[in-house]
Design brief:
Helix content: 55-70%
Largest sheet: none
Number of strands: 0
Order of helices and strands: HHHHHHHHHH
CATH topology of the largest domain: Rna Polymerase Sigma Factor, Chain: A
């Protein structure tokens, strides 16, 4: 009788918690599983990847699977059994491969800081900005970005909100942390909301 997925998952976890050859064999099986998941995730994103990086995707998947295995082994004691072990483990490799693909896609792309980026808003901006069809409102927002934000806030806001640069890529470019970039983005949005409220486009928050 074939072993079902639930039992395979339990067996893999038990063997990872042992030592010697049993442990090593479990690591090999775990890496193979995570590599399949990484390749599937990369395949799902294939149409959004630049042509220049397609030849390197499999190497990125192998690296992602290897790093995911290391992270899983470090955090094995944190597994609480709320989901199947293999489901829990696959989340690690999906995060790893997604991060690598985003970073690699932006590796040679400049982060746009020119005001010319505003000319592309109707087609290139995220949905929150596409809804701003009122040119007067867009003008007020552009002035607020130029006049109210620091240079760093302006770069982070335009890159993350308009050009959709991933946060982890911005953190890498600025030699900073994701938390610091999120804080910069939060402060920029707070200033812009206040500026638009002053201009009569939004209500002031208490």
């Amino acid at each position: 009788m074939p072993i079902d997925a639930e039992e395979q998952s339990r067996t893999l976890l038990q063997e990872l918690q042992q030592a010697g050859a049993v442990h090593d064999g479990a690591i090999t099986r775990l890496h193979a599983l995570l590599l399949r998941v990484a390749r599937a995730e990369a395949g799902r994103r294939h149409s959004r990847l630049p042509d220049r990086m397609l030849e390197e995707v499999d190497d990125l998947c192998v690296q992602a699977a290897s790093d995911a295995v290391m992270n899983i082994l470090r955090k094995l004691d944190e597994f609480r059994g709320e989901a199947r072990f293999t489901t829990w483990a696959c989340k690690f490799v999906i995060f790893e491969v997604s991060t690598r693909l985003r970073r690699h896609a932006w590796r040679h792309r400049p982060i746009e800081t020119s005001d010319q980026i505003w000319n592309e808003l109707p087609d290139a901006a995220p949905s929150a900005l596409r809804t701003m069809e009122n040119q007067e409102l867009l003008g007020a927002l552009q002035r607020a970005v130029r006049e109210r934000l620091t240079e760093r806030q302006r770069t982070v806001f335009q890159a993350a909100t308009i050009d959709e640069v991933p946060i982890d890529v911005l953190a890498e470019r600025f030699a900073s942390s994701r938390g610091a970039i999120y804080k910069t983005l939060h402060d920029a949005r707070h200033k812009l909301r206040a500026a638009l409220a002053d201009a009569g486009f939004l209500e002031h928050r208490p």
